[in-house]
């Protein structure tokens, strides 16, 4: 008799306390609504105030999870050691030049948090500006948000979150003495932007519902209560951010949702000046500014340019009537971001899922591109901190090629390799194969799938597979180098990324056709990717473990309902599975902002029906489900802990099989999970152990199987 994968232990029982809600004449009953803490705002700032009944339930879930995963402890330790062994523990970034100095970050051996340092511009002794490990001492959770030096290079703004709820605090450090000023600015979005005189900074403050809607100016040496309100956004559906120009001439106030934007500017040398509107918001029109000396270059979809174009306008007259086209839209090739330098305009674009960097001489109009020849790869444009330069920086990697960092001379077109990611335990790219497949979707679209596997892995359908997906907000998951997944590939797994609709992998239309009333394309694309991997003999359905987080967790819940037979296991991290209830609740942090992405079920019966048709929690039913692992953080403001808690309870109540549903809650973290780099590796090792357990691959490696 085959030994069961998990011990037959009773799962925690979740009491029912039905709550009914009627919208558009439709009444829904939620048996597990009581798991939502009424004082959730307070819990985000102080987890100790959580209702004892809810805490007891979550702790029971953790105990059940631990009991079912106890036999993987040795495997988890092995995986952790492997993944840690691939990290250069004392790794350091290549410093970027800015004025008389070059700034960078590093880790110390054994350290969990980054450190920030600087050197003289052309090299020399490092000066440590901020030690994250030192700041994290004594805290159960700590995450550095940013560290930004002032224009005069004398001060540093740095931000941190010590609860996991993303209510960041800001401090100001004197770089010469390394002492922090008494200034403490709380409840921020995580960063600040200096004024030109280095006397103060701008920051956005989040309200009790965690929405960044107010911009303040803080003068160094004063109390936060004295900070001047610079600008306020009254529409809860629009969030506010602040940035600075490369020449330190302007402060950019960026307001927007998922499809509309509006920018305001302030001269950086006149921080108390009234903000100036660039172009009034127009539903569906996005734009983003980059300073180019006496002009702004504007990346925008104005005029129906779905894949975006670049326009310019005089700095002294930035209003929309003065915009002129500089780089026209090329349908099917989406422009992702742009930057301007004294002599060059640069942008990153993507065509058929592959990125390239394009450089245009601002005087002659001559263009050339930086691209690579691999089937699937990742390219990042880091640019430069300086405006008057011919040198920009970019990064490159593929699923088999460790990350490389280059300086690129835009004038001579010479590349200088600055750094190649080190893998201390060793890595031979020739041991692995990367491919790019095209999976046919039900409507005939071809869904790109990037895959990695060990060269000794048999491609006869017997290999297990971890299939990752996201598919929302236009976010593209790059086919980049990931040392962690090598632990799966070395054990015979095919590691796959499905570039499904809802991202911008194949242009803006790819995103549009995976949102709102077309959202189900995201789910059917992912199922199609699984089916294609099986059809091409890379794996079999009972060997596929699906994985996704946040909106990708919604994907996991949806495909579990729609095609449970297609997967042998599912890992749902911070899963957005109660989408209907959340998008109906206007008090939750992100809800009004989310309506352009998902639809507004509060006002629209059609949107209500669409979301209700695929909402994972609403559509759990009496059928067999594969083993499921749900993971969340108690203080997560993005996807609240009660979404997966309710989902797990309903799954257990309705499903018809004996496969377990495991629920793991980090009681000291939020959306991003554990904060330290090694703590995060422990979480990944745990997830991989689950995937290995449900596929029965806890020991053998690909090379061992080939020899056998």
Describe what you observe in this structure.
This protein is α+β, with helices and mostly antiparallel strands and 708 residues long. The chain folds into three domains: 21-84 and 427-707, Alpha/Beta hydrolase fold, catalytic domain (Rossmann fold, 3-Layer(aba) Sandwich); 102-277, Prolyl oligopeptidase, N-terminal domain (Methylamine Dehydrogenase, Chain H), CATH 2.130.10.120; 284-422, Methylamine Dehydrogenase, Chain H (7 Propeller). It has 14 helices and 38 strands. The strands form nine sheets. It has an eight-stranded mixed sheet, with helices on both faces. Strands 3-4-5-6 form a four-stranded antiparallel sheet. The chain has a four-stranded antiparallel sheet with strand order 7-8-9-10, with no helix packed on it. Mean pLDDT is 93; it is low at 702-708.
What are its keywords?
single chain, alpha+beta, Rossmann fold, Methylamine Dehydrogenase, Chain H, 4-stranded antiparallel beta sheet, 38 strands, protease, Pept_S9A_N, Serine_Peptidase_S9A, Pept_S9_AS, hydrolase
